[in-house]
């Protein structure tokens, strides 16, 4: 199994991507997709990515829902900031947040989540100290962000990538 | 009003909005003031251009420009990454 | 505009609403590029079009072509997937490049490097 299919999830993703791109499930398309899914992961093997173990499918769904709601909310918030008249006082600035995640996949996931949410931007992460530098458009309270990231995202990410 | 007319007029408005967004992004590319602003403007320009093609597809009722949108999305990514790398090091390939 | 006439009126209005909302959000993001004063504030603006704006337009496209062809057409979903994965990478790299440039110029707007 592991010699023929080194990365089963990647193979499955490539096959389904091929089917969606072609918009059909004809035998020839299926065969081509299966070939892609079988052969391309071997190119991945030379990169030797660290082994990822994914747990807790329930946590993945909860995280996806959470991120979706957060993106909706902050889209509204940032649109309001952009369209509001110049007078209102608003502070934007850099903050440093202490992360406790270890898995590189969890950290990459957090980077995508934070940057995809309008109003927050991941700038720099120092792996030795576990400190993250990020920029926030509407900065009210620095400690609030530390709490938010630790309790809202990090807890779920630790469940998914133990 | 028929479904045809509704789609035609409202999607034309959407096209104008996206074209305006591209114009603003182009303004940033030309006027900067700094290099990172120009790269950000280019990023916004290709993003809105891709959305424009998607809306154009709906308005035309055919998916003939789907590949164009896909390629703009992927090439824009590569271009912005290369430019950001250039800003950081002064070289793209080290 | 020949095939679209087969669409029911309610579907036309839903597609319209999704596309207009997406295009509008993307335009608001571009206006942010114009109005916000500092570079680090402006970086946040295009995210509007790249997340929800793009999602709405892709949703309109998927709905329209699925109804038109009478089957689920998910091809545009691939664009959404690729864009969701690539936009954060470009923005993080751009922000890092800007921070690096500001640091080497000794600007006071940017905090010091984390390594020490």
Automatic annotation (TrEMBL), chain A:
The chain crosses the membrane at residues 12-40, 60-83, 103-125. Keywords: Cell membrane, Membrane, Transmembrane, Transmembrane helix. The keyword Membrane applies. It is found in: Cell membrane. The keyword ATP-binding does not apply. It comes from the Bacteria. It is a multi-pass membrane protein. Belongs to the CPA3 antiporters (TC 2.A.63) subunit E family. This is Na+/H+ antiporter subunit E. It comes from Mesorhizobium liriopis. The lineage of its organism: Bacteria, Pseudomonadati, Pseudomonadota, Alphaproteobacteria, Hyphomicrobiales.
UniProtKB/TrEMBL annotation, chain B:
It is found in: Cell membrane. It comes from Mesorhizobium liriopis. Belongs to the CPA3 antiporters (TC 2.A.63) subunit F family. This is K+/H+ antiporter subunit F. The chain crosses the membrane at residues 6-27, 39-58, 64-88. It is a multi-pass membrane protein. InterPro entries: MrpF/PhaF-like. It comes from the Bacteria. It holds the Pfam family MrpF_PhaF. Keywords: Antiport, Cell membrane, Ion transport, Membrane, Transmembrane, Transmembrane helix, Transport.
TrEMBL record, chain C:
Pfam families: PhaG_MnhG_YufB. Keywords: Membrane, Transmembrane, Transmembrane helix. The chain crosses the membrane at residues 12-36, 48-67, 79-99. It comes from the Bacteria. PANTHER family: ANTIPORTER SUBUNIT MNHG2-RELATED. NCBIfam families: CPA3_mnhG_phaG. This is Monovalent cation/H(+) antiporter subunit G. It comes from Mesorhizobium liriopis. The lineage of its organism: Bacteria, Pseudomonadati, Pseudomonadota, Alphaproteobacteria, Hyphomicrobiales.
């Amino acid at each position: 199994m592991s010699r023929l299919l080194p990365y089963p999830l990647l193979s499955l993703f490539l096959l389904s991507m091929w089917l969606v791109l072609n918009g059909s499930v004809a035998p020839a398309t299926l065969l081509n997709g299966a070939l892609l899914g079988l052969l391309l992961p071997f190119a991945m093997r030379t990169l030797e990515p660290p082994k990822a173990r994914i747990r807790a499918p329930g946590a993945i769904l909860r995280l996806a829902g959470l991120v979706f709601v957060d993106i909706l909310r902050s889209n509204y918030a940032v649109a309001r900031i952009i369209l509001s008249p110049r007078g209102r006082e608003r502070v934007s600035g850099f903050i440093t947040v202490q992360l406790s995640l270890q898995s590189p996949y969890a950290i990459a996931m957090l980077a995508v989540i934070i940057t995809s949410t309008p109003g927050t931007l991941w700038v720099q992460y120092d792996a030795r100290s576990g400190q993250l530098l990020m920029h926030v458009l509407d900065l009210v309270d620095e400690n609030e962000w530390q709490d938010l990231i630790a309790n809202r995202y990090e807890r779920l990410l630790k469940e998914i990538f133990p | 009003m028929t479904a045809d007319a509704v789609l035609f007029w409202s999607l034309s408005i959407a096209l104008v909005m996206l074209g305006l967004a591209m114009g603003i992004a182009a303004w940033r590319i030309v006027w900067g003031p700094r290099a990172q602003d120009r790269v950000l403007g280019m990023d916004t320009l290709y993003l809105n251009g891709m959305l424009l093609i998607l809306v154009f597809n709906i308005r035309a009722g055919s998916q003939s420009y789907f590949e164009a949108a896909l390629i703009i999305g992927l090439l824009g990514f590569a271009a912005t990454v290369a430019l950001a790398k250039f800003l950081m090091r002064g070289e793209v390939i080290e | 505009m020949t095939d679209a006439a087969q669409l029911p009126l309610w579907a036309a209005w839903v597609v319209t609403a999704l596309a207009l909302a997406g295009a509008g959000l993307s335009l608001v993001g571009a206006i942010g590029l114009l109005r916000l004063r500092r570079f680090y504030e402006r970086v946040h603006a295009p995210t509007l079009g790249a997340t929800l704006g793009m999602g709405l337009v892709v949703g309109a496209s998927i709905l329209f072509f699925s109804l038109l062809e009478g089957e689920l057409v998910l091809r545009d979903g691939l664009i959404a997937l690729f864009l969701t994965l690539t936009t954060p990478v470009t923005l993080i790299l751009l922000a890092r490049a800007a921070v690096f440039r500001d640091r080497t110029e000794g600007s006071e707007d940017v905090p010091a490097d984390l390594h020490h």
